Amino acid sequence: MNGAAEGADRESRGGALWIDVYLAKSLAEKLYLFQYPVRPASMTYDDIPHLSAKIKPKQQKVELEMAIDTLNPNYCRSKGEQIALNVDGACADETSTYSSKLMDKQTFVSSQTTSNTSRYAAALYRQGELHLTPLHGILQLRPSFSYLDKADAKHREREAANEAGDSSQDEAEEDVKQITVRFSRPESEQARQRRVQSYEFLQKKHAEEPWVHLHYYGLRDSRSEHERQYLLCQGCSGVENTELVKSPSEYLMMLMPPSQEEEKDKPVAPSNILSMAQLRTLPLADQIKILMKNVKVMPFANLMSLLGPSIDSVAVLRGIQKVAMLVQGNWVVKSDILYPKDSSSPHSGVPAEVLCRGRDFVMWKFTQSRWVVRKEVATVTKLSAEDVKDFLEHMAVVKINKGWEFILPYDGEFIKKHPDVVQRQHMLWTGIQAKLEKVYNLVKETMPKKPDGQSGPAGLVSGDQRVQVAKSKAQQNHALLERELQRRKEQIRASSVLPGVRIKEEPMSEEGEEEEEREVGEDEEPMDTSPSRGLHNRLANGLPAGRAAGGDSFNGHPPPGCANTPVARELRAFVEATFQRQFVLTLSELKRLFNLHLASLPPGHMLFSGISDRMLQDTVLAAGCKQILVPVIVSHNNMFLLLKHRQVLLEIFSKNYRVRRNMIQSRLTQECGEDLSKQEVDKVLKDCCVSYGGMWYLKGTVQS
Questions:
Q1: Are 460 and 518 within 8 A, CB to CB?
Q2: Percent of the chain with pLDDT over 90
Q3: pLDDT tens across 186-203, in order?
């Protein structure tokens, strides 16, 4: 509204007061409104000395440094000295925050109140005229506590220096660190857009803008009075203020612009941010996909509450099965939704196909149990620890000394209410399990299937129930096992018993039969690896000693004539292959490796017939290995070391379980008749020995 009306016109309109309004634009791009929300209006900062000021114009970020009245009776001088000491330390230099060794200033940092200031202006009323100047920004200034971060950094530096000073530097040999070299792939356009919209990229761009240092002038300074005159319109004629001369229709258009212009001028939000109002304008399938992609794991009831009460649950069930999988009654987003085809791991650069396969393995493990161990997942999938941690953080929480537990409780209500969906998901998981077993060479786990195809919450089956299940399973298979035992005994008699020799069969005691049934009923009984019971244990790999290797045993030895059986040849091949890789082994470590080898074999393999500890030890000795007084076995089939070098080590460690390096080197030089280089001696020691505290031991004779 323009106030260029005449005096007669004013009198004709009664006693109303008309004020001329002018638009001043001299400071339109430089005028900011400062607000101090933590300070009452009666306590201004006008009389407080301003030490420095700086601004980032593009971000509209301002920092002010104001002095603190250290002579005020309310100021605690001891606290101020303590804060200065924590921040700057005992030595003061140019980089010190508080040069006076006293907290005598504080910093104020601004934050934007609103991004749209087009509706705000500063008004100045003078001599019956109202002058308006548009605001360029509205900023709220609050005290900054960055000096506390600096104090924490100083404290950590002092602790690190103390730890470095106390650490011992007399290690026997310097550790070799592995360096991983990674090559970045060409960045796609889609990946570049995601990177540009990321929080880290925006923070980096903000940090790159330089500060512009300013000079502060007080409220009653002459320069401030001069700048304040620019709040008045410089040309007060109606010709230069055409912005305020509008027709009623144009003025109404300015107050209520059309919706199309609103959509056009609406700022573009980041791709990962979407309001619920915008979400509900999308199709149902897109709503479900966006929600699952952001939440990762969600019960069906929560999904229905987010979509709204008017949405049909049947349509939601159809849509959720396209983007998520059922795990313990809850829905987990599919891996290919999180990792599209052309993407890769931000940690290791692994392609999306490998990431999807590894995440599917984690999801499948959670369908079997409430708990998952990260090391086991990393061992099977061969992925980096960062990638595996990302998988688990999507759907689980870590518990100390237990592993990762599924993040949501078991949803039995959904399982009972939708059995058809559960059955369909079970079929999908069966196919995924078959694919994972083929890719990762997994051994099929023999576990009871639930009718709903989902594993219930862990810990609901008591120990008595498990014992009853094992007993019933043993009773069902008792007849079959007895027939198989008789058949194997007849085969052994026909092939290996000498003429004229009869084997007396003594019936087992009642207690032994019950013990046998318990052992047969157990699933995956591990081989006993304790060295004290290795040769006198009645069981071999979970079977009675009488059934080990498919025949009778003679005090733990294999039957005569069975050295050339397929089982013996297979065991001999395993032993030779093992000692080609590791040259010194204890018997317990060898049995552990044998158990791992059994786990990698397909079901029904001949080695599952039962291998006793004595049979394994005899096979090792028959393969050309030597057993010495300390509990280790040294291989003589190593193709990298000369026989005379190994023989010298065998003689040395037969007399003493630990020796010094110079003794080993002198004996090697004496026996071989030549001066061995340091590299040759290091090769021998690295293959067969290990160093602790300056002494050398055979591998396996000391605990790590």
A1: no
A2: 11
A3: 777 778 788 777 888 888
Q: What is the pLDDT of residues 485-506, one digit of tens each?
A: 777 777 766 654 444 444 444 4
Q: Specify the length of the chain in residues.
A: 704
CA distance linking residue 397 with residue 297, whole number of Å: 12
Structure tokens at 227: 């700048």
**Is the pLDDT at 166 greater than 70, yes or no?**
no
Q: How would you label 297-319 residue by residue, b for 16+ Cβ within 10 Å and e otherwise?
A: bbbbeebeeebeeebeeeebbeb
Q: Which residue has the higher pLDDT, 638 or 667?
A: 667
pLDDT score at 252: 83
How far is 569 from 619, CA to CA, in rounded Å?
A: 9
Whether the CB-CB separation of 404 and 374 falls below 8 Å is answered with yes
Q: What is the largest CA-CA distance in the chain?
A: 147
Q: d(Cα 303, Cα 308) in Å, to the nearest integer?
A: 9
Q: What tens digit of pLDDT does each residue of 262-287 get?
A: 444 444 444 455 677 778 888 888 88
- Angle among Cα 327, 333, 336 to the nearest 5 degrees reads 120
Distance CA 350, CA 316 (A): 33
Interatomic CA distance for residues 503 and 496, integer angstroms: 12
Three-class SS state of 422: helix
Q: Quick one: how far is CA 506 from the chain centroid?
A: 59
Residue 412 is which amino acid?
G
pLDDT of residue 168: 47
Q: Tell me the sheet residues that pair with 140.
A: 35, 111
Per-residue pLDDT, 274 = 63
**Whole-number Å distance between alpha carbons of 444 and 178:** 35
Which tokens hold the place of 213? Answer: 């240092």
Provide DSSP, 529-572: --TTSTTT-SEETTEEGGGGGGS--BTTBPPTT-TTSHHHHHHH
Token pair for residue 187?
Answer: 């960045």
3-state secondary structure of 463: helix
Question: For residues 226 and 243, what is the distance between their CA atoms, to the nearest angstrom?
Answer: 26
Phi/psi for 142 (5° steps) reads: -130, 155
Q: What distance in Å separates the CA atoms of residue 483 and residue 471, rounded to the nearest whole number? A: 19
Backbone phi, psi, residue 117, to 5° = -110, 15
Region 25-31: mean pLDDT is 85
User: CA 541 to CA 605: how far, in whole Å?
Assistant: 14
Neighbours of 328 (CB within 10 A): 25
**Angstrom distances, CA of residue 541 to CA of 484, 520, 538:** 17, 11, 10
Give the C-alpha separation, 639 to 212, whole Å.
Answer: 72
Question: Does residue 562 contact residue 548 with C-beta atoms inside 8 Å?
Answer: no
Q: Are 132 and 123 in contact (CB under 8 A)?
A: yes
The vertex-50 CA angle with 152 and 96, nearest 5°, equals: 30
Give φ, ψ of 372 to 5 degrees: -140, 140
